[in-house]
């Protein structure tokens, strides 16, 4: 059975005091679902978050990492550095990293390799922009992003891969793909995996939806057979809203 996962991507929000306040509120929430819960604070607060949550069933994960082990990469963070503070999962390929920091499929393939080489799990993000959706080109765009960055891997690597479909036009815009649109794309993603690696691998990989999930729409989105959870942005900055989404399963 595939894992149900709800991961909160805090992006560049919350200083240390705000992080501590939000984590305190998260600890007070009651979880009624069996979903795995993850949060991704900003890098400066990962160690504090890990220490605060190490006795709770909330995993602290990273928003990004570099593909190099060490060296002259000012401002970057390696997988070894993350592992050294207890962080074992990293988000890679988020649309904002692709758009604002020019991360290509080739760069992301190297990052995926580096993370897997350190024994880390990867939440790998991809998705189409509004122009792609309007031109009905979304499946080609999504398929190419997955193939270019991941299809050099062997099937065993997918035990450490979580996929996250994020229609770029529905991130931070208040727009949300309909549950039917989300299901259609998730089914296409699973078929793309099956065509390459077989149905056993395809049926074992969790695919998250990452486009403006809120308490009001989470239950309907999560009810779709190929939607295994969410990568949550803005709503993850409010503990009550975040756990309303976690408990939507």
Fold and architecture overview:
This protein has 249 residues and is an alpha/beta fold. It is 42% helix and 14% strand. The strands form two sheets. The protein has a four-stranded parallel beta sheet with strand order 3-2-1-8. A four-stranded parallel beta sheet has the order 4-5-6-7, with helices on one face. The radius of gyration is 17 Å and the shape is globular.
Features:
globular; 8 strands; 249 residues; alpha/beta
State the share of residues found in helices, binned by percent: 40-55%
Radius of gyration, whole Å? 17 Å
Strand order of the largest sheet: 3-2-1-8
Order of helices and strands: EHEHEHEHHEHHEHHEHEH
- Number of DSSP-assigned strands: 8
Average pLDDT reading: 96
Low-confidence stretches: none
- Summing up helix and strand content along with how strands pair, one would put the structural category as alpha/beta
- Shape by Cα distribution: globular
Write the layout of secondary structure elements.
Blueprint: E1 5-9, H1 16-27, E2 36-40, H2 46-53, E3 58-60, H3 79-84, E4 89-92, H4 95-100, H5 105-117, E5 121-126, H6 130-134, H7 138-150, E6 161-165, H8 179-197, H9 199-204, E7 207-209, H10 215-222, E8 229-232, H11 239-246
Parallel strand pairs: 1-2, 1-8, 2-3, 4-5, 5-6, 6-7
């Amino acid at each position: 059975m595939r894992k149900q996962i709800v991961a909160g991507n805090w992006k560049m929000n919350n200083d240390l005091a705000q992080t501590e306040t939000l984590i305190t509120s998260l600890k007070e929430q009651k979880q009624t679902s069996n979903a795995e819960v993850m949060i991704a604070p900003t890098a400066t607060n990962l160690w504090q978050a890990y220490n605060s949550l190490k006795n709770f069933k909330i995993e602290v994960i990273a928003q990004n990492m570099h593909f190099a082990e060490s060296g002259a990469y000012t401002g970057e963070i390696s997988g070894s550095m993350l592992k050294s503070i207890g962080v074992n999962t990293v988000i890679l390929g988020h649309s904002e990293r692709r758009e604002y920091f020019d991360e290509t499929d080739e760069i992301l393939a190297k990052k995926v390799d580096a993370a897997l080489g350190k024994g880390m799990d990867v939440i790998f993000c991809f998705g189409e922009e509004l122009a792609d959706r309007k031109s009905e080109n979304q499946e080609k765009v999504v398929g190419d992003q997955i193939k270019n960055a991941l299809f050099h891997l062997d099937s065993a690597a997918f035990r450490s891969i979580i996929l996250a479909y994020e229609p770029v036009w529905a991130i931070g815009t208040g727009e949300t793909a309909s549950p039917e649109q989300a299901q259609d794309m998730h089914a296409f993603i699973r078929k793309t995996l099956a065509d390459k690696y077989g149905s056993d691998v395809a049926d074992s990989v969790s695919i998250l939806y990452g486009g403006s999930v809120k308490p009001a729409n989470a239950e309907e989105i999560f009810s779709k057979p190929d939607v295994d959870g969410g990568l949550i942005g803005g709503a993850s900055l409010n503990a009550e809203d975040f756990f309303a989404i976690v408990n939507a399963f």
